[in-house]
Design a protein that fits this description.
The complex is a heterodimer of chains A (95) and B (160).
Chain A: E1 3-11, H1 17-31, E2 34-42, E3 55-58, E4 70-72, H2 75-78, H3 82-94
Parallel strand pairs in A: 1-2, 1-3, 3-4
Chain B: E1 14-18, H1 23-36, H2 44-54, E2 58-59, E3 66-68, E4 81-94, E5 102-112, H3 120-131, H4 133-141, H5 145-159
Parallel strand pairs in B: 1-4, 3-5
Antiparallel strand pairs in B: 2-3, 4-5
Classes of the chains: A alpha/beta (95), B alpha/beta (160).
């Protein structure tokens, strides 16, 4: 039975880089046995979107006091450090 | 078969070897092109600059010359499109991940986006392009818009 997790993907506009990251992370986690229920929003809307969210993945800086795990990364855009970030995301979702 | 990136970019939306003094100059140049070609509203340039000031789009690729993907909210966009500038010498954009850090940028992809689900392929193609260091260098070295388009088209054919 695959693990089900809610992940919120944030970026400046809520439609550009968060779309890319959402696709990349959802695909990669599926291969690792985690089904992601993905939602997207603007960085400025994150605080109002946190209901039942297990993890926030963002391409831009977010407040540090959100009360849920936050991973800010450009790895899915630049390709730099992608494997490490995927390990970190998996560990956080399984944690 | 997915549409090539080259097939989605107009030659008139490409500027090679731009001698710009600042990121604002590049952004105004490309936004002007997109406006003239009917992709964005006149409000687009200022909206991109305002967004860049708060949430910048410089991507540190670990190179001397890096990449930026300036864009803004859908209400300033009439139809999806891309404009590209290669710069004669890098100008500083702020890092998307850390706005206090400057990233020297030589390759700028300006994005006019209005629907996240329809533009995912275009975005993926841009990211694959910029992650290819050899191709990125060739794009920077391209002397004309036609040469640059041929490079983008060539990659697509190479992948098929």
């Amino acid at each position: 039975m695959a693990l089900q997790k809610n992940v919120l993907f944030a970026c400046g506009t809520g439609i550009a880089t968060s779309t890319l990251v959402s696709h990349a992370v959802t695909e990669a986690m599926k291969e690792r046995g985690i089904n992601i229920n993905s939602t997207q929003c603007k960085a400025t809307e994150v605080r109002s979107m946190l209901n039942s969210v297990d993890l926030v993945v963002s391409t831009t800086q977010l407040p540090t006091d959100l009360g849920v795990p936050v991973i800010t990364t450009l790895a899915f855009l630049t390709g730099v450090g992608k494997a490490d970030v995927l390990d970190k995301i998996e560990a956080t979702l399984r944690g | 078969m997915s549409q090539s990136l080259a097939g989605q970019i107009e030659r008139e939306a490409i500027e090679t070897g731009v001698d710009a003094a600042s990121s604002e100059e590049v952004i105004r140049l490309l936004a002007g092109r997109l406006e003239k070609l009917g992709y964005v509203r006149p409000s687009f340039a200022d909206a991109v600059l305002a967004r860049e000031a708060r949430m910048p789009t410089g991507l540190p690729m670990g190179r001397d010359s890096n990449v930026a993907v300036p864009h803004t909210d859908p209400e300033h966009v009439l139809k999806p499109g891309i404009a590209i500038a290669t710069l004669a010498h890098p100008v500083d954009f702020a890092n998307m991940e850390d706005p206090d850090e400057a990233v020297p940028v030589g390759l700028v992809f300006m994005l006019a986006l209005n629907d996240k689900d329809k533009q995912i392929e275009m975005l993926q193609q841009i990211m694959l392009t910029i992650q290819d260091e050899t191709l990125s260098q060739k794009l920077l070295d391209a002397g004309t818009a036609n040469e640059l388009l041929a490079l983008l088209d060539g990659t697509q054919q190479g992948e098929q």
